[in-house]
Every structure is written in C-alpha cells, then in structure tokens.
Here is the input.
Amino acid sequence: MPLPSTSKYQYITCDPEKCVGCQICEYVCSYTKTGEFNTFRSRIRMVREHKILMTTVACRTCENAPCVIACPRDALSQDPDTGVIHVDAGRCDGCTWCIEACDFGAISINPRTKLAEICDLCEDEEDGPQCVKWCPKEALELTTPDKRAQRTRHKRAIEEVLRR
Amino acid sequence: MHGYSGRVLHIDLTNRKRWVESKPEEWYKTYIGGVSMATRLCWENIETGCDPLSPGNPVCIANGLFAGTPVPVGGKYGMASKSPLTGFIGDSLSSSWFTVSLKRARWDGIVVHGASEEWVSVLIDDDKVDFRDASDLVGLSTTEAEEAIREEFGDDQIRSAVIGPAGENLVRIANVSNDGRKAGRTGHGAVWGSKKLKALSVRGTHGVQVADPEELLKLSYDILEAAQGPHTQKYRILGTSSNVLNMNKLGLLPTENYREGVFDDAELISGEYLHEHYKAKTIACAQCPIACEQVGHVKEGPYAEAMGHVEYESLFALSSNCGVNDMEASIKAIANCNELGTDTMSTGVTISWAMECFERGIFTQEDFKCERYPEGFEASFGDGMAMVRLTEMIAHRDGYMGDLLAEGTRRASAKLDEERGTESYQWAMNIKGLETPGYDARALKTFAVGLAVGTRGGCHNRTAAYDPDIKGWVDRFSVDETRGELAKSTEEYAAVYDTLPLCKFIRRCFTGKADREGAWPAIAKLINATTGWEFDYDDVDLIGERAHTMKKAFNVREGWTREDDHLPYRWQHEPMTKGPSAGHIVTDEELEYLKDIYYEAKGWTEEGLIPKEKLVELGMEDVAEEIGV
Here is the structure.
C-alpha cells in the first residue's frame, strides 16, 4: 500500500515550458476514445492564450469532485480508487451543470451525442494514457499534486544553489 | 474515398453565393493536395490574363492530405492565385489549425471568386457559409484579427486565416496569416485585399476518416519518435537561424543588398546569439512533433516587447542584408511584418534596395518623409531604426517611400528609373518580380538555374538545388552538363513535399536517409493508409513532376516565355569581393546553357514549352489541349 498523500489521485498534467502546442495529444485522445481523428472530441485540450503561452487541460480528478456533486441526475460518479469520473450515458442528458461546476474547464459535451465527456486516464489501455505516450516533448505526465510539489521543491533547490 | 471528402467549396464574394463542386477520385490521384491541387484549382477557375488584383483572380486553397490526422508535420495546406508580384503562379504553403478545421468541415479545397464591395469576413461552419460584415476587423493586426474572431464566437475551435493592414492596403508583398504562420510569399495578402476579404474562418466538427487508422497511427508514431532524434536536432534547438553562421562561412550570407556574402558581425545576428539572449520559447506548427519555431522577444529599449518568429530567411533579409547588426531591430522588424502582414523576405530585400539607392545619393532624407516622420530620415545600410520604420511605412503605404516600396523591388525600381532616369534595376534583387532568398546564387551554380527557372520566382523553397552545391556533390563555382538534371530532380523532390504537403524538415525521419530511396517508400505507406490507394515509389515520384508541370503550365498560359527565366542583374554582372565566394558571377552564356540543359532534362522544347505528349503522359490531357505544343 502506498503511503497516504495530501491528494491521492493521479491526473494528467502539462508542463507549459515544454508544451509546444502541436495538439498531437488531441488527435490521439480523440482516436482512442471515439475511433476517429477529431480534436473537437478530445478530452484533453490544448490551450493557446498568447503567442508563446500554451498548455493543456484534462480532468484533474479532484477529491469530492464538484462535477459529481453538481450533476442533477446522478449520472456522474467517481471511482474511489482512481478518482476517475465515470459518465453514465443512460442518465446524462447533457444539461452541462458539470461543465459549469468544473474549475478547470476539463469537461466537454460531445457535439454528436450531446453527452458529457471526461478524461478517464485511458484506464482501459494497457500502456496507460495515450496522450502521455505520444507527447513528443514529454510535457505531459501522469502524476499526483504531491509528486509535482516535490519536484518543484527539488528544482527550486537546484536553482538556488546554482545562483550562488 | 478516404482522406478526402470529394468536395470543393466555391464562394462568390460578388454575389454572396456558394456552391459545391464534386471531384472524382482520379482528379485527387493526379493533384493530391497542397500547392499542386491549389494550382490546379486556380487553373480551372481563373480568368486567363486577368489583373491579379481584379475579381477574376480566385483565391484557391487546397488542404493537405494528412491534415487532421496524426501524421507528423502534415497540418499544412496550399494557397494559390495569380501573383500580383510576378503575374505568374503564386503558390504558398502554410501550417495551421485553419487547414485542420477545414478538413473537419469536410472540404478538400476552397475557391473564393469575385470581390466584395464592403469588407467581409467569411465563416465556414461545417456546411454553412456566412458572409459577415468585417468593418470592425479592418485595421487590426493579424494576431488581433484572429483573436477578435475567436472572442466574438467564444470558440477556440474556430480557426481563421486573415490579412493584416498591409493586405488591406494592397501592398504587393502582403501575405496571409494563421496561428502566427504565414502563406508567406508572392503577395496573397494583396489578392485578399482586392476582394475586401479580411478573414476566412472555419469550424469543422467531423472526424477525419482514413482507410487504415491503426496502420496510420503505427507509422506516425515511429516518425514522431525519430523526429526527437539527431535528424532534426538542428531545427529543434536553434531552428533555421542556425544557418546564419554556416552561410557566412561559405561567403553566401546576403549582405548589404547582396553586394557581399560575408557579414563581419554575423555572430550578432546568429541563431546562437538569438538562443542565448532573446529566445522566449520554441513552438510548433499544427501536428508537428519537431517544433522549430524560435520566438524572439526584446525585453527593453526602443523595441521593448517586440516578439517575432525568427526564421533564417526572415533574419537574413532584415539583418545582414540591410547591413544591420542589431538583433533587437531585426526582431522588431520581423514582428512588424508578422503583425502588419507582409512577407519578411520581400520586405527586407525591398528595404535593402532602398538603402542602396540612399547610399548612392538617389534617395535623400526628403524621400522618406511621411505623416509619421515629417522630417524624413536617413536610411543607410546598418541603420536598424530606419529598417524598422520602413517595415511600418510599407505596410501602411506611408508617404512616397512606403507607397513605392509596397510595390516590391521590380515595380519600385521600374518606377524610379522612369521618374529619375536611374538604373536601379541593377540592384533590384528579384526573379520574375519575387525577391531572392538568403543564399547568394553567384557561387551556387546549380541553385542559380533552379532559381532562374522557378515557377514562382526567387524562391529557395520550391527548388532544393542548393543542396548539391553546398554539400559538395558538384563544384558550386562552375557549370557542367549534370546541372539540368539536378535542377529538375531537386525541384520535383521539393514538389512532392509541397503537394502532400509535409514539412521538409521531416525528410530524414523516415529511414535516416533524405533521398528518394529513403523517403518515397515510407511516404507511399502513409498515403496508402490514409486513402486506401496502392501508391508505390514511382507514383510518389510522379506527384512531384505533375505538381511542377501544373505550375509551369499555368505560367505558360499566362504568357511565359524563355526570357522570363532570368537572374537578377547583380548576380550576372557584379562579383562579390570578399570571402570564399568572391569573384564569381553567372554569365549570360552560362545561364542560357543551364536553361537549355534544364529544359532538355524536363522533356520540354528549346523554348521551354511543354510538348503535348509529355502532358498526356502525365495524365493531364486537358492541359495538353490548351497549352501543349
């Protein structure tokens, strides 16, 4: 058993310094999840806010996920082990309350089916999240907030030493 | 059909109408996509002999075959219209999500006819076409215009191609911009401006269907991995501006309007210097795993906050070529071109022509007067501020000088020579009216013929004929009987990439070898997995010959003659005096010989015209009917 951490779930994170904005993650995600190449249906989204500011957003697997709480039809549920949010297609009616509840803009409505779609960390894929596998710049990573903080601390320490 | 929708969208701006044209599979097999298909659409839809800035000249856009799929570096498209600079085919390539959106909207191409009376922005929303008032977009820079459209719709997935103020002002060296990338050369921006077309936006919601997605993914993944290795290292770390020091060492770095090929301060304008002092970020084009674009950022001083996409060709034109050793001025000048919507290369080479006129005393401070600079200013080589000011004046046609230079070197020199009895055409560096690139062809004799015969004029991208010269496969200072075949072979090689289109920077990532044997079998597999066709090595090779022949055919119908395959006067009469390339020119005798053996290698007549049977052999019967001899 791993030791308990401040936030227990893994999610896909992007290092904006490494992200070059190629959107290859979106192609691979859409194909993995829908069988067609359509970045419109990707569950990870590249965001380009400025000439040089680019990063991606996918589900952050929040604990006590607000999207699950917001859903008026109990269509959303969170896997207690992985934190992955599951959408029950039989219950979801595309009302978009989950989208409004999500602080990260990580949920979208499929334009065809009009149902909510959320990153599930490719839990059915043997080799894990396909976007992470394909990211040519290793900007994407499956990690936890705790691990990220730890790395930032180390990076910071090294920078401090180098500055002296 | 897989990989294509089989549909071309026609938009008539004069009558605000749209219609759909279906194309048969054979047509796609012949013209594929990119510059080849765009040129073919232009051939089918132009009013032959029309003024390039009249409604009879269509804007033709052809998707990339691999746009919207995971094929690395395949997010590209071709744009063609009759060039307002050359009067011949103007074919440009660009990478962007505009083409990916277009693919998802299920259009293989767009033909924009006619001209609007009021400024218009066209939104293509899957099958719907909406003509929208663009008066609030007029005057906006390229980035601002794209942002304003996204803001208005609140939709990131709407992708636009736009013109900046330069295109609005019918500047003949204006271009079209999307996601910071350009359909850069030959003056498309002015063609859009003449139609009062400020923006074309697309939202596409459909998936892209390919014949064998699993196979395509597998092939793509291998290329993507190879693209992180040594084959693309140069591009990933320093980008194309790593060429500055290489070209300088060979004595080929255009300096002071091509007077010399060695720049004493080359270090200060090098990719290495950029990387160390000004690099803000490396970014990628649509679906590109290489990422070569170096964004330069000036933090303080007179050009504070300038941010520009620094490529070698932009850099040479707006630094050494103007004698300027100030990287900050270069970044600012490039940023101005990016935002105002002009071609950095033509802009830089046109400015250097003006600087030479100033140094020779033909232009004086007076000539540079305009509203912004009522006293005028001096514009000697090396004056970075003058260079930066001129990039703005050109885009806005400010004053006498802005208006003159907005015409490009060929027209500007002709006008000046007529007005003042000068001979400034002698240092107007263009071929067919398109300004020359950042390799001095006096000492690259295979490249010299490649450039002279180039269908779009002075362009390094449509002929890779500098390769045999620079790599030392041939003696670059002399001429021999192999050069005709080499020029043919390298331009058709380039045309394969420009037609699919794939970025040429991926060329070593298929097998480690960039030649036909190394690349064509791998490209055939990509085509087959996408379309379900059974292309082999020969079919891929034929893509290039067909594409090039189509462009040449277009030119012939627009009145091309052998005399149009020329070099700038300077390269034929004035040798450089410094460095390893000093002392060379391309004589008339050499040039005419090179043209002879090139036409022969192409299977054309002595006059450079295309025989009917050659066109029939390439499956272009209707073209044979019109222009074959």
User: Anything to note?
Assistant: Chain B has a mean pLDDT of 97.
